[in-house]
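User: Structure with LJD2ZHX5, tokens only please.
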Amino acid sequence: MSKVDPNKPIIQVALDLLETDRAIQIAKESLEGGADWLEAGTPLIKSEGMDVIRKLRDAFPEKTIIADMKITDTGAMEVEMGAKAGADIVVVLASADDSTILESVRAARKYGVKIMADLISANDPVARSMEVEKLGVDYINVHAGIDQQMEGLDSLSIMKEVVKKVNIPVAIAGGLDAVSCAEAVIAGADIVVVGGNIVRSSNVTASARAIRESVDSPAKVQITRLSRDDEIRTILESVSTSNISDAMHRKGAMQDIFSMMEGKKMIGTAVTVQTFKGDWAKAVEAIDEAKEGDVIVIYNGSRHVAPWGGLATLSCLNKGVAGVVIDGAVRDIDEVRKIGLPVFATCHVPNAGEPKGFGEINSEIVCGNQTVNPGDYIVGDDNGVVVIPKERAYEIARRAKEVEKTEQRLFEEIRRGATLSEVMKLKKWEKH
Ligand SMILES: O=C([C@H](O)CO)[C@H](O)[C@H](O)COP(=O)(O)O
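Assistant:
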């Protein structure tokens, strides 16, 4: 049942959820889209125990089921648990001690299951893949863990080395989508393990189908490479400031700063301005310092005298500035709205100050009670404005995307008639 045909890559869908019922429903939808193997993900096993394997086995008697137990010790006991619950393949950490791997393999032989060794966090994954093959494992999974992916680790380059060194089937996992699955198959992957990009999709069947098409015809998939900055901006385009706030554990949101341009989204890198009540010179000079795609972030601190208005806003268009954030007031709001540049501010008033020239451009400032440094990523939408420190921009963008995907699936389940607390089983997960 768990054979691998070198000409037909296997899609293993990782059911990284918390509830058995949702996992079974999502498994059904992913099989309809062409997924092959069903993995009880580690969070699912931790949440529901081995019973989830039994329920998956009952629901899908003919399918290959993987218990992603990530065994680190007591190999024989845990493999026995997985096998008796109905798994075909049990996952052991490749970084576990050799004694654990050997015991897992011995128990697997006794109970008629296979062992997949997961290389997540292995010190020297290529060398370890050869060692665990010698210890008798049946499959190797080259895996960039979810937290690692968020910081930019990907498993493809390691997998390219591993496939040259081992003779057993090689799986790859770690944030794979239709494009990276195609790349992995071209590079020699026998099994692609896909979690979030299937199970958190609002249309699980369509997402599984897209992966099926890409692994079956990988040469047809167009592979584009983006710079890190473009990648960050592309991801940020697709998420909301609420998603980002969740990803940052509620840090990063500016206080008392609101969109003056309903429906306009803004993404850019900060040019910071420290200025003072009644002085608009530095705010306006910052336009000349800004590059295309920058956001001018101004601390002015007055609700009554604006450092910014219509003429400054129009000047921004000539420089390709992505938007403006003001801790303080803006004026000429009718002109600002006509011009259409995203502007976020505390309020709007008629008064402007004078161009005196106090203050500084591109020093660290505090805006909306958040520290902003030049180059930090600033995102604004109708919810408000968040600042993402530049050092964590990629990670936060990726985490926000995971939040967005999770919500897409929740929306879909609510559309089907459930309430949010039913879908999330809120009562069960209240703090005990
Ligand atoms: O094994 C996994 C992870 O450690 C959480 O248990 C995932 O199933 C694996 O990474 C695949 O999921 P995605 O990375 O979301 O595709």
